[in-house]
Amino acid sequence: MPLRHGEGRKDHLTSFGGLAALSLDALSSVAYGPEAMLLVLAAAGSSALHLSLPIAVAIAALLAVLVFSYCQVIAVHPDGGGAYAVGKQDLGATVSLLAGASLVVDYVLTVAVSLAAGAASLASAFPVLAPHLLEVCLAGLILLTVVNLWGIAESARILMLPMVVFVCAILGVIVVGIVRSHPAAVVGTAAPMPVSETVGVLLILKAFAAGCSALTGVEAIANGVPSFREPRAKLAQRTELMLGALLGPMLVGLAVVVVHQHIAPRTGVTVLAQATAGAFGGGWAYSATNIVVALVLALAANTSFGGLPVLMSLLAKDHRLPHLFALRAERPVYRFGVVVLASLAAILLIAVDAATDRLIPLYAIGVFIGFTISQAGLLRHWYRQRPSSWLPRAVLNGTGAVLTATAALVFVGTKFTEGAWLVVIAVPALMLLFSRVQSYYRVVGNELGLGTTPDRPNGGRSLVIVPVGQISRLTEYALTAALSFGDEVVAVSIHLDPEYSERFRAAWEEWNPGVRLEVVESPHRSLIHPILDYVRQAQCDGRQIAVLIPEVEPRRRRYRILQNQRGLLLATVLRARTDVLVCTLPYRLTSR
Amino acid sequence: MPLRHGEGRKDHLTSFGGLAALSLDALSSVAYGPEAMLLVLAAAGSSALHLSLPIAVAIAALLAVLVFSYCQVIAVHPDGGGAYAVGKQDLGATVSLLAGASLVVDYVLTVAVSLAAGAASLASAFPVLAPHLLEVCLAGLILLTVVNLWGIAESARILMLPMVVFVCAILGVIVVGIVRSHPAAVVGTAAPMPVSETVGVLLILKAFAAGCSALTGVEAIANGVPSFREPRAKLAQRTELMLGALLGPMLVGLAVVVVHQHIAPRTGVTVLAQATAGAFGGGWAYSATNIVVALVLALAANTSFGGLPVLMSLLAKDHRLPHLFALRAERPVYRFGVVVLASLAAILLIAVDAATDRLIPLYAIGVFIGFTISQAGLLRHWYRQRPSSWLPRAVLNGTGAVLTATAALVFVGTKFTEGAWLVVIAVPALMLLFSRVQSYYRVVGNELGLGTTPDRPNGGRSLVIVPVGQISRLTEYALTAALSFGDEVVAVSIHLDPEYSERFRAAWEEWNPGVRLEVVESPHRSLIHPILDYVRQAQCDGRQIAVLIPEVEPRRRRYRILQNQRGLLLATVLRARTDVLVCTLPYRLTSR
């Protein structure tokens, strides 16, 4: 559900380009979805594993519902925005807060899950990495962070090649795996499978919910509609259908291979890697496929780095996050977001020791909340608008909403103690944060009179105060500026020593710059507080007051520490304790 | 030699108060000086220990020379300043750089040595602390740091009581220890004394030099002359003589006790503690004396926290450190100094594992450089001025200079590989830093035309640019200020969306604030760069330009993150890339 690459930029994706730019997360989830399902079934013994085929068919059916739903979301919200936009428009403030919070959680989890699954895939190809999954994940995370801090040009074209190779490899695994009559190679260690559950409705529900983690990402296209070429909605719908047509057969096909080859979860090798070995043997094709899978998962993780800033700027524009985040095009803001996202993902990866299956419940809860909100929003939309043939659409979306809400509830209920509590705490905490921020901005907006017409501004008399230490070209430069802006200008000089202050006064009179000099003696050795006191007294007569602080700017950065500390201190104190205009004037050195 | 407590403040010390405020470091060095000497002698076997008495007499003789020299320094430099002032006036720039650098090193070492000796003293009273000397030191250091960050009122009166108790305790140890005919108690473990040296000139020189560490601090009174009551010089000289009269007998007396009671260095207990046990037994008086010694050593360490900022401000006034440090009365500057001093002392203590005897050579080198400079400066002074009876004075100071220079060289030569190399690197490095800073300020001063009379400043036409986001009371407030200062005012508004910018223009016309509005469209989503471009274009016509940035100031600090980030970013960019006046205007909220 996270908003994807390129969203917000109008970069005219074709429907095929859109598949590369917006669907990598969804396609790559075949690397962990089927495995998550098998892990649940394995708890009921190896005989339960054949259930994976019917469950995969059910998941594919849900996928079909979701794909058709999102085609309608695209038609109804051609400006994009996904669950957050749908929630805001059709379901009210609280639901959109819920959508926003679960989206933020999911961006973090997309990074963590994709990296963990990618590391497992890499370790399947290179068993030497198997004991170091966490290190592999963190290395990948650091790489992604650096690349994103440095800034990358987003390009659908670059993503096309890995996507095509990935899809062909997976389809190859399925086709060859089914055609071959016996397993070609055995990789990994057989995991002991203690039978701890019996086959029943709850087990099947749990396996269904776990397998549904393969559906994460199908909402990204609906979020990114503005990135498509005109006719946008049409192209985006076509991309959504292409995604469904690829992902559904891949899921069902992999389930067939699993059953056909009697694949069970093993340690040190992923289910997808076992299927690959079953199809291609253990040679170069096996290694190459695993590497491609790992690469595509890393690219899927990367989509969050593009998507979270977009979501945060949407939230900031709705006054639900500090307005700062609306400035996402400004580098410091963007970098701040990148570092925060990477840090949270790192904490999660360390907490679960890079185990994909422990992250998936957390991930799926957020994603399914989003699915549910989108469908429920459409339901409400149809019910309100009642276009022709609205009833079948409403039934479709209603069914989808019930199914996805069920999956979310199953995850929360069955995995609460295994980490789902974290989402149950984090999502409401984020919602509270958003609404507190929003109410702050509302109160401040009222005080500032936003939306009302203020009085007309009227200028008055002005006084510019220039703190002066010595007589120099810097003083001349500062006074020149001050004389241009103020009706009256006064130079204030603080001296610790009465003798020196006399000499200074004499030198000033000799210079005769046409500006009144006030000499203040400071017995307490502070240079800042006497100026503060002077400014406060001057404030009494109702004039507009500015304090002009000249700053010497060295050419080289390393000389900064040698200059301006006094001005910086003074400016800070004046800003904190007075209401005057605090002005700084750079004087650039040419020599140093 | 470090400048001490109260220096720079004219707080009218009496001669006795001066002893408490300025001599704790010198008096407390009896806690480690004799021990350092015995450790050197012990290397030649226990029979060499009796040499401690003649060497102590020689040290006391050097003390007498130093005391008389500093009485003359006080007479010649009644404004204080010690070795740095003497060096600057009588020996030229390079020597004063040397004095300044060794002073800085010594402030750090005073803290480290005093804390290490204090911890050893405390561990003598409470053997359970013996394996944790470093932890005790660091705890003491943290306590001192916190107290100094919080700020303490310096007061000679508070220091008098511990000083009097300390002096009485040491004199009691000496008198009782000599009167008693046999050792009363044995404390600590006898250390194995491998005989690795023979008695010879070098050994005696080394023992002399090590014992001279007991003289550290005798220069503090000369640094602090301005703190005394009138007649300043007279009172300060009296204090210096009192110090000599106390310290000399204490040193010789302790040597007599050492020989009389056959005291040798032991592990886990200091030499002073052994002497205390010999005099008072192992009971409460023993513990109490050790605690008092530790307390006085901690107070001696504390003098550096008062003294280093004074020295740094002197260096800053001579343009040898960033001018920032001249503002030592300003809290942030003072706190910065405290933290840096504490960090360096902590690094040293950790590096030597809180072993006093490993720090003493480093400490003594710097102190003796200072002694040598003071004496050589006086020699030069007498030779230049040639007052009546200048020759005996010159001989006295020349002898003193030769003796102290010898001690410094002995330390550097014999302890080079044991840590003295650090001083040999640090002192020239600091000198280089000071002279680089000085040459920077000279070049900049020339460019600014310091000491020349600049042209008369002439004001010109002015333009105030106000970046505007919405129409609100904040806008009205900002435009009111702008109209007071500018000949012309223009409001600049950046919009991403052409439609919104049309609406904004209409609202502006309806409000009709009497200020021209410029709407700039930003297709790249940046709000900062379009303003930067606008300002740069406006700069072309030669007017003085100010950019006025209103800032909403929430009442509570925690709401800061929600406001002003845009203004802060803009101000930073404008300061870095343009020469315009950047003004910020606080608008204080009352509601939040």
TrEMBL record, chains A, B:
GO cellular component, one term: membrane
Listed transmembrane segments: 52-76, 97-123, 129-151, 158-179, 199-222, 243-264, 284-312, 333-354, 360-382, 394-413, 419-437
InterPro entries on file: AA/rel_permease1, APC_K+_Transporter
Entry GO MF terms: transmembrane transporter activity
Primary localization: membrane
Any Pfam family matching the protein: AA_permease_2
Keyword line: Membrane, Transmembrane, Transmembrane helix
Localization per Swiss-Prot or TrEMBL: Membrane
Coiled-coil regions listed: none
Membrane topology listed for this record: Multi-pass membrane protein
PANTHER family named in the record: POTASSIUM TRANSPORTER KIMA (PTHR47704:SF1)
Protein known as: Amino acid permease
Species per Swiss-Prot/TrEMBL record: Actinospica durhamensis
Lineage: Bacteria, Bacillati, Actinomycetota, Actinomycetes, Catenulisporales
